[in-house]
Amino acid sequence: MPAKDPSKIPVSDLTSVQAKGELKRLAYEIALNDKRYYQEDAPKITDAAYDALRDRNAAIEKRFPHLIRPDSPSKRVGAAPTGRFKKVRHAVPMLSLDNAFSEDDVRDFVGRIRRFLKLGEDEKISFSAEPKIDGLSMSLRYEDGELVTAATRGDGTEGEDVTANIKTLKDVPKELKGRNLPKVVEVRGEVYMTKAAFLKLNERQKEAGEAIFANPRNSAAGSLRQKDPAITASRPLGFFAYAWGEMSEMPADSQSGMIKWFEHCGFDTNPLTKTCHSVEELLAFHRHIEERRARLDYDIDGVVYKVDRLDWQERLGFVSRSPRWAIAHKFPAERAITVLNDIEIQVGRTGALTPVGKLEAVGVGGVIVQNVTLHNEDYIKGIGGDGEPIREGRDIRIGDTVVIQRAGDVIPQVVDVVIDKRPHGAKPYHFPKKCPCPLHTDVVREVTATGEEGARARCTGEFACPFQKIEHLKLFASRRAFDIEGLGEKQVELFFEKGWVKEPADIFTLEDRNAKIKLEEEEGYGETSVGNLFGAIRERRAISLDRFIYALGMRHVGETTALALARGYGSWKAFHEACLKVAKGDEEAIAEMDALDQIGDTVIDSIKAYFGESHNKGIVERLIKQIDIRDVAQPKKDTPIAGKTVVFTGALEKMTREEAKAMAERLGAKAAGSVSKKTDYVVAGPGAGSKLADAKKLGIKVLTEDEWLKLVGQ
Ligand code: IVH
């Protein structure tokens, strides 16, 4: 008989040797998943599976305390910071919470507190009951009422300095409101993205042919980890205050009092927070919030109960990484079991092949789910991007009974396969080697920047692939591009299939050809709707350069990049000439493009590929004959700072930082958030820190505020 997999043996049955091996495996797996979650914003297992790993580790350590490893996960919280941002040591560590999954766990928690504090049976304990926001914890340090540092949790001891990015959040006061503020105040809470904003952001990412985020938590993390605060500013992030770190004085003596004080200081706190006085009330709160969960506009994964009296909190203290005075009462994941009827391959605008699972319809947390994303070939095979199994080596087969979960309430995923229910003869899924498009061209796996094989498969049919053409036409007519009313996805498909519109230019000749086509005879059309459609098309013959560039559908050129390019070149003529030169490898043209704000190698490579393809050049040439592309105002060129990059740091006395930045931009300069070789001036006021040091190191000219104002002639 084969030896039993030690990871399946109940903790109570483990031998000491097996326990040692298990602790080693768990330390590795937890560290790996921490890294994916905290550093890469790309978790590969569910929160429940992660919690199970930690719980098993804790249970084994409890039974075999002599085997606790020096690198035990119970001694760490989260993963070390990524290193891209300056590190910040937390004055008071940022700890984590223990979890309760059942009502009994909550009763035990309250019982433990009672015993610890030696409280009599009839002595009441009040708790602050709060939703557990599924975002990123953040520590905001205020000195003399002014925000000085914003740091992520990191490993709990040391986080990342994301001050510049956090300052772009409207929910985070740059200055605390109120008088007699303590000298040092550290407000802690959660940065989150609303579900609506997350959906919108993903739509934009998709249109730009860029990676989409798995859930709002990841997109909030990704948005905060930007080197350029302007990108963070463009992503709507919120903040709820619920805890604190170092405080030079305490303004209240209870958790609920502190929450009220945060509100006075100008913070948002969660409106569902409630004070409860018994286990029964806590459990009712849990049920109430769970019932509201799907309708909330932000993700939560449970509720948190905290002893309200701060003197009691102090007496209770901490056990390893979590407080004795608080617990997270988790919600069960929103999961369902159903059958996978089929796997379909969708081809996107850029030729990426995405497998989509077709399910027997099932309700998950109040929403009917019929499709699941299966991401890519490796995901179906059950291996992660770096060769790691993600469903314990279980692959997904057509006919399988699968466990699905709505991640971030939006994109459902397959989290497990019920092997016992696998039909006889179910075969491993073979990812197609040929594109399902009528050309049946070869499918290749992308090569990543490091030269390794990536997970994404692509159709090599390129611009001849009809599927890619349809997707491009859909983008072309969509709201953010040409915005042609009456030419939605369905109509584009119909017109393409009929052969009436094969490329963008055809849209504008449709009216002239209609004598032959007779669109009004098509089902769903009549004289009026046809007239309206042609009217809408005529109206869109004039378009601004930024929209036009976006509508070309180049990879990595979303709306923001298109606008940056349009502003950089001003006119279609200048942009087009530059692109053709870039495609030929003209170094000067490439350097000029590279110098533009927000444009780097990825975009340049994409433009090179697009304009290097004769098929595309033809499409563009035929299209521009039909339309009128309006110039976009370029920043002023005849000022002393035109084309220069300026970084403001420290306090400014004559104007706010926002105003100074806006002035620089008006005068044709770029105001950047960090100092690099590309920086021309650093304007440093009192309190300037690392940026000033960077400027000195790189030999960049440093100006005082007055010198700056003189330079710009103000
Ligand atoms: S209190 C010492 N309250 O949950 C404990 N945490 O697993 C301080 N979280 O790192 C945390 N909502 O990111 C607290 N109302 C809430 C919360 C909350 C979300 C997160 C936070 C923390 C994690 C703990």
Task: Give a brief outline of the structure.
The protein has 24 helices and 26 strands. It is of the alpha+beta class.
Taken together, the total number of domains comes to 6
Radius of gyration: 29 Å
Mean pLDDT: 87
Q: Number of helical runs?
A: 24
The N- and C-terminal alpha carbons lie at a distance of 86 Å
Q: Spell out which ligands are present.
A: 2-(butylsulfanyl)adenosine
Can you describe this structure?
By secondary structure, this protein is α+β, with helices and mostly antiparallel strands. It folds into 6 domains: 6-79, Helix hairpin bin (Helix Hairpins); 88-330, DNA ligase/mRNA capping enzyme (D-amino Acid Aminotransferase, Chain A, domain 1, 2-Layer Sandwich); 333-459, Nucleic acid-binding proteins (OB fold (Dihydrolipoamide Acetyltransferase, E2P)); 465-540, DNA polymerase, domain 1 (Orthogonal Bundle); 545-630, DNA polymerase, domain 1; 645-711, Rossmann fold (3-Layer(aba) Sandwich). 36% of the residues lie in helices and 21% in strands. The protein has 24 helices and 26 strands. Strands 14, 15, 16, 17, 18, 19 and 20 form a 7-stranded antiparallel β-sheet that branches. The protein has a 5-stranded mixed β-sheet with strand order 2-13-10-3-9. It has a 4-stranded antiparallel β-sheet with strand order 5-4-7-8. α12 packs across α13 (489-497) and α14 packs across α21 (614-624). It is globular, with a radius of gyration of 29 Å. The relative contact order is 0.07. Bound molecules: 2-(butylsulfanyl)adenosine.
